Amino acid sequence: MGKVRGGIERYASISRETSRPGVINLNPIQRGGILSGEAREILTSFGDGYSMCDFCMKGRIDLIKKPPVSDFLEDLASFLGMDIVRLANRCRDAIFVSLMGLKRSRGRSVLLVDGNAHYSTYLAAEAAGLEVVEIPNTGYPEFRVRLEAYGEAMDKVEDERGELPLAVLLTHADPHYGNLSDPRPVAEACRRRGVPFILNAAYTAGVMPVDGKKLGVDILVSSGHKSWASSGPVGILALREEVAEEVLLRSSRFPEKELYLLGCPVLGVALATLMASFPTVVERVEHWGEEVEKARWLVEQMERIEGVRQLGGRPKEHTLICFETPGFHGIASKHKRRGFFLYEELKNRGIVGIQPGLTRRIKLNTYGLSQEELEKVARAFQEIAGKYGLEVR
Amino acid sequence: MGKVRGGIERYASISRETSRPGVINLNPIQRGGILSGEAREILTSFGDGYSMCDFCMKGRIDLIKKPPVSDFLEDLASFLGMDIVRLANRCRDAIFVSLMGLKRSRGRSVLLVDGNAHYSTYLAAEAAGLEVVEIPNTGYPEFRVRLEAYGEAMDKVEDERGELPLAVLLTHADPHYGNLSDPRPVAEACRRRGVPFILNAAYTAGVMPVDGKKLGVDILVSSGHKSWASSGPVGILALREEVAEEVLLRSSRFPEKELYLLGCPVLGVALATLMASFPTVVERVEHWGEEVEKARWLVEQMERIEGVRQLGGRPKEHTLICFETPGFHGIASKHKRRGFFLYEELKNRGIVGIQPGLTRRIKLNTYGLSQEELEKVARAFQEIAGKYGLEVR
């Protein structure tokens, strides 16, 4: 083998400062993925990579009976109001697999998406050889997805290219502003035209109630490490029967294997923690209303600071929040630590998760924080504002 | 959301009987993935899905400096004698990504593989829209890959289709017989024809010394959960500079993102444990000779049992071993538990990992077992054989 430079011993003792008890993590991608107590307890016994595979008989994780993986996937499908669930590497892979399968079967070339879609949606489409047509959002300051525009946009694709889009994707709650979009009008426009409707529920399923059937969704994708208290990486691919055969196309040479999933996803701790957290998740989505209330409370507190304004739809319907913070940006421009001052001031107060260096706009997520923790967060921002001479009403 | 049937609380308390102290696990896919002590120690602090992303500045895990991910990937590349390393979901995804990138750049249509390739190699090729041409192995009982046949096989593809293969793949140690194939003659045949050479090192890199440069490899793929003592899932994609640009093609819309990787692999505990185990791995590959000696010792002991014969090349050069066991198969045909009797007899002796139900041929892996554990394994098989009237020499 090749030669490795010295000092590699340090990799054996990496540590994570944000895991210290009492630290509040506001990272917008992390709140819904923090492990449940039950999940954390099984980490050691299921830590080995193939820990779920001890009693695998058929080389397919979805068929494993011990631990009860196959039962679990059925329960997960019921919970999501869908017919069939498979696990994928990540949410984006679930989108990619869906697009590859649909394209193979239907041969169309356009994916219609909302203008707030995650970057990985564009990558999945490009990797699948599709062109993306985007419905722009309404722009500053609300950046709403124009749900009523989907029908017309599909017809326009058909007029211009002689065929409808291969599929339509809506980002249920988006990663930029945390706007929650109602899937029903989009589903209805898709249903009327026979176009499959994909809902990217990475930020919704697992933290709030989502019923794919009621919402008229054909393909629902989500992210275990983002919203299901799983170690991940693991994507959830939930399908209606009508599209399952297309998406879960079998390999020609190994007909028991699903082609675009590249066979079994080989999950150990990712699946073990997804399962262990499931009872917690089923219970916690019932409290979504309270979570939204807490988010709104924090918006109110933050907007007491000079210049701070919540972007995205008002009032908040999701716990991921984007603020413009021109006051902090002004401080950064004169501070010797530049944009890092805000991150560091927060960290000194036991708060992490605001992207280091950013001050013009900041994003955070209040999901699962207690009222006491939220008060600490509000106080910290207000204190920092005051310290640098911003007005706090 | 949908309705979930009762009894889901049981998912919160799944347990893993094979993780009990003292249990010997012979599972051929599991031996190289068992966590190091250091990896097991950091499970709790890095258990959350985005645990490596606390200080991510650019949305790319390979660029993270804290923990030192970017340094680690450089050291990993050096260790493998390669130029650049990226992490993928699994080893098979690393193959798929390579094929997609090469195909996009070179536009050819055939992947040439050895007849002992893992099923996922075929799936990756089919999903990438390639045809697989296979060099058959030598058949029973050795099933060797005919390394000298690669050059001729490439020329035959060229004669018949007017173009050389897009790439050539060799399975370094195969999953069926544990035959170790010397990549050098294949590399040389590829080099002369300008065809990229992919080495599937899922069962070799991480347990034995592998130097991609010395072996003439263009793309080396491996599996963290199979051979690097990582929780996984995580694939290692190690590239020579000459092919890196083709494989790591950027997205047209998000030029900082690598298209076929679908952006960042989003790894938490999989990467944390891969890093924590790295010093152990660097050290342990030096002891590969002793591991092979132990495998040979077990072969000798097993072949004392009536009818047992090691399949694959002799003597063993790898710790994954396939035996034909017609004696056990004969017992199974009359036993009330049928093929499960062997699994159960072993389990009663604290030994797991032989696929439940199989008795005609069995596979196991001795990697990392102590001499004492191996003696326990040999004794168990011999005892079971004796109990059911097979002769033990």
Fold and architecture overview:
The first copy, chain A, has 393 residues and is an alpha/beta fold. In chain A, 37% of the residues lie in helices and 13% in strands. Chain A has 14 helices and twelve strands. Chain A has a seven-stranded mixed beta sheet with strand order 2-8-7-6-5-3-4, with helices on both faces. A three-stranded antiparallel beta sheet of chain A has the order 9-10-12, covered by helices on one side. In chain A, β3 (110-114), α4 and β4 (131-135) form a beta-alpha-beta unit. Chains A and B meet through α1, α2, α3, α4 and α8 of A and α1, α2, α3, α4 and α8 of B.
Structural class of chain A: alpha/beta
Largest sheet of chain A, order of strands side by side? 2-8-7-6-5-3-4
Uncertain residue segments of chain A: none
Oligomer: homodimer
What separation lies between the terminal Cα atoms of chain A? 64 Å
Shape of chain A: globular
Biggest sheet record of chain A:
7 strands, mixed
Largest protein interface, residues of each chain: A-B, 109 and 109 residues
- Range of helix content of chain A: 25-40%
Radius of gyration of chain A: 22 Å
Sequence of secondary-structure elements of chain A: EHHEHEHEHEHEHEHEHHHEEHHEEH
Q: What is the typical, i.e. mean, pLDDT of chain A?
A: 96
* Percentage of residues in strands of chain A: 5-15%
Number of helices of chain A: 14
Q: How many E-type strands of chain A?
A: 12
